[in-house]
Design brief:
Blueprint lengths: L4 H5 L8 H11 L10 H12 L11 H15 L16 H12 L11 H18 L8 H14 L1 H7 L2 H8 L18 H10 L7 E7 L2 E10 L9 H4 L4 H17 L7 H14 L8 H8 L12 E3 L2 H5 L11 H16 L5 H15 L7 H12 L1 H12 L2 H24 L5 H13 L13 H7 L9 H17 L11
Parallel strand pairs: 2-3
Antiparallel strand pairs: 1-2
Length: 500
């Protein structure tokens, strides 16, 4: 640490300047001692002279001092309300530490669980981002502007409600429409594998999960992974165990309600109910997949699989069972109804209030929430999940000075150097092994706070090249889904970027 200059006077997180902290360290030292002879006395001799062991104790340390200070702080600190002093910490430490908080804290109606971490995230992240995303005159880069535009479009419920179901109807029409609400649906034009592949190409993973990730056996290269699908209900036990029937019924109501909201052709409700029952029955079974057709449509047009392409099957037993679990007697209409229902389920929250209300009624049963989240909370989460690096810059600009990152990086460099010195001094390690150890230390990639590139508007904007945002919330969600799917798939066979 440097004495003098701005670094010496700069305030640290605890309120003391770095100079004050350095002075405290100097007082703890005994400069009259030779550190090569007795490093402990050199580093702590001053503290030992100034701190006498209290008569009631047989040892004393800086931790003892911290304990006393903490006890003082607790008397005026909110932390005191968290504990349950009536409980013996040796018998039930959790209840002793958290009993007061558990007794006095009520889970908010819009959450399924609650904790101090959630509470801190609310204060330190969500509300900060809300304020920053609502700042209209803070242009820094195109990507940060996109973040604010996406948030504004998400918050514009008047525009979203005015469009009603039209955005979803138009989107599904690109894939042949949803049979249960489309009276002139053309079964002969429906190729389930082509539709599934095309939907995966725009980010919808139905009946199969496909991702490009680093190879588990060669982490420098990205390869293709295939996995078993998720279901409309979050767990297969919901379908199989009688005690979970209330969840299946809520799911059935949710699907039927969504279909009725999209039923602009006034199709008979009984017919829709029958189609819903068929979809739920189908969802417990697995359809035969034409891999060549599926992959041809799921991958970008200019990316073709090679004959010897390496593909990781994350659930081999699932894929082994495919040929033994072919669907017999299931019509193309039922398959199409299921596929389009999963599209509806994935996008309904982005439509008008009627669809959001239907989704909430379902979530009340499945997750136990009692009220929907405030719109701004959901919109902050949407933007944060999709434009994470751009939102990240907005956040660090508000609360994370660059000096904090520099200080942490300096500390890590000291640790790295010290470790390398220790390795060199080991008499039991051979020189070739020491060399490998040093190389491993040098190969460690530091991830402190945020990647440096997000502080440069040019490189940050390059991160989102090809993505655009408008005032149409539903359109933004679909465009991002398609853009991100293309981005990930085009990483196939490419080296892994360790900076991200």
């Amino acid at each position: 640490m440097e004495r003098g200059g701005d670094n010496y006077r700069e305030k640290g997180k605890g309120g003391k300047s770095h100079g004050q902290k350095a002075d405290q360290l100097l007082r703890n030292m005994d400069p009259m001692q030779d550190p090569c002879e007795n490093f402990y006395e050199y580093a702590c001799g001053g503290w030992l002279k100034d701190n006498i062991i209290p008569e009631e104790d047989f040892i004393y340390s800086t931790f003892s001092g911290l304990k006393l200070q903490l006890e003082k702080d607790l008397k005026t600190n909110r932390l005191l309300t968290f504990i349950n002093p009536d409980v013996d910490p040796c018998s039930d430490f959790y209840e002793y530490v958290c009993g007061g908080w558990s007794r006095t804290t009520v889970i908010p109606d819009d959450l399924t669980s609650h904790s101090l971490i959630v509470e801190m995230s609310e204060q330190n992240t969500l509300k900060v981002l809300k304020a920053e995303l609502e700042e209209e005159n803070d242009h820094w880069s195109n990507s940060t502007d996109m973040s604010r535009d996406m948030y504004a479009a998400c918050m514009d419920t008047d525009a979203i409600n005015a469009k009603q179901e039209a955005p979803l109807v138009d989107f599904m029409a690109m894939f042949g429409g949803w049979p249960m609400v489309t009276p002139d649906w053309n079964e002969s034009a429906f190729d389930p594998f082509a539709v599934l592949g095309k939907l995966r190409n725009v980010g919808f993973e139905i009946l199969l999960l496909m991702n490009v990730m680093p190879d588990s056996y060669n982490s420098s290269i990205n390869i293709l992974y295939l996995d078993q699908p998720t279901l409309g209900l979050s767990a297969r036990d919901y379908y199989l165990k009688p005690e979970n029937d209330k969840y299946v019924q809520a799911y059935r109501v949710y699907m039927r309600t969504s279909a009725m909201l999209l039923n602009t052709a006034a199709i008979d409700e009984a017919a829709i109910s029958k189609a819903v029952d068929d979809v739920i029955a189908f969802e417990t079974r697995i359809a035969e997949i034409d891999w060549d057709t599926y992959l041809a449509h799921a991958l970008p047009a200019d990316l073709k699989l090679e004959p010897q392409e390496k593909i990781i099957l994350k659930q081999p037993e699932f894929f082994k069972a495919f040929n033994e679990m072919l669907i017999q007697g299931v019509s193309a209409e039922v398959k199409a109804n299921y596929v389009m229902w999963r599209v509806v389920q994935s996008t309904a929250w982005n439509l008008d209030k009627r669809f959001r209300d239907a989704a909430f009624e379902y979530n009340m049963v499945v997750s136990g929430v009692q009220s929907p989240k405030a719109r701004w909370r959901d919109c902050v989460t949407v933007v944060q999940s999709k434009l994470g690096m751009a939102v990240g810059y907005i956040y660090i600009k508000a609360v994370f000075p660059e000096a904090y990152k520099a200080e942490a990086e300096k500390m890590i460099s000291y640790i790295r150097s010290a470790f390398k010195e220790i390795v060199e001094e080991l008499d039991w390690m051979t020189d070739p092994t020491k060399k490998v150890s040093q190389e491993k230390v040098d190969a460690i990639v530091e991830h402190i706070g945020y990647p440096d590139y997000i502080t440069d508007p040019v490189t940050l904007d390059a991160e989102y090249e090809g993505l655009s945002v408008s005032g149409d919330h539903f359109d933004n969600i679909i465009k991002y889904s398609q853009w991100s799917s293309l981005l990930y798939m085009t990483q196939l066979r490419k080296p892994v970027d360790e900076s991200k």
